[in-house]
Amino acid sequence: MIRFLLLIFLFSLSNQVYANNKGEIINNLKNTSNLTFDFEQNINGKIELGNCTIQYPKKMFCEYDKKNKVMVSNGKSLIIKSKSSYYRYALDKTPLNFILDKNFLLKKISESNEEIINNSLIKFTIKENSQQLDIFFDIKNYELIGWQTKDIYQNTTVTLLYSIKLNQIIDEKIFKAPLQN
Q: What is the pLDDT of residues 102-129, one digit of tens each?
């Protein structure tokens, strides 16, 4: 009987820890209007580096270190521009639409179960419209530190964030769609 009560106590304690993690992540995300960060992006083994700014709702500007490449979301379209190419996608047809929609993330995180990875990451798996998004938070400060998606070509994309700064003053002009070449 004592073992049974101990197991119930330990189980309820672990549920409280998970609930606390989820609550801290939700509070942190609610208080985040924007974030700037450096990133490492791995698309099927091809590594790209750069820096980004996300401003909620649904705006993003990223500069890649090589190839003179930028990626911009103005809230409706996602544009990827390099010296030799220009692609425009409807944002709502891409997995980034979910990452850039704070209200969607808050709702899905509150409904999802978390997974602790190596006692350093908290992972939530979100499935929506036949797409899957794995989103990662730091277990120490509850900040968004990465995500994993499949792009429209079914390439697995893992994006890791570092040197993260929250709620910076941002020039809105960076979210203006770049002109085509």
A: 999 999 999 999 999 999 999 999 988 8
Please state, in angstroms and rounded to a whole number, the distance separating the CA atoms of residues 122 and 112. Answer: 12
Prediction pTM value:
0.85
Sequence-distant (≥ 6) Cβ neighbours of residue 91 within 8 angstroms: 58, 73, 75, 76, 77, 78, 97, 100
Tell me which residue of 146, 106, 119 sits closest to 23, measured CA to CA: 106
Name the residue type at position 140.
Answer: K
State which H helix or E strand residue 146 sits in. Answer: strand 144-150
Q: Are 32 and 166 in contact (CB under 8 A)?
A: yes
Spatial distance between the Cα atoms of 71 and 174, rounded to a whole number of angstroms:
10
From 132, 100, 135, 101, select the one nearest 115 (Cα to Cα). Answer: 135
Helix or strand (DSSP H, E) at 59: strand 59-64
| Cβ pair 60, 76 in contact under 8 A | no
Q: What is the signed CA dihedral for 65, 69, 74, 76, rounded to 10 degrees?
A: -130
Exposed (0-12), middle (13-18) or buried (19+): which is 21, by Cβ within 10 Å? middle
- Report how far residue 134's alpha carbon sits from residue 158's, in angstroms, rounded to the nearest whole number: 9
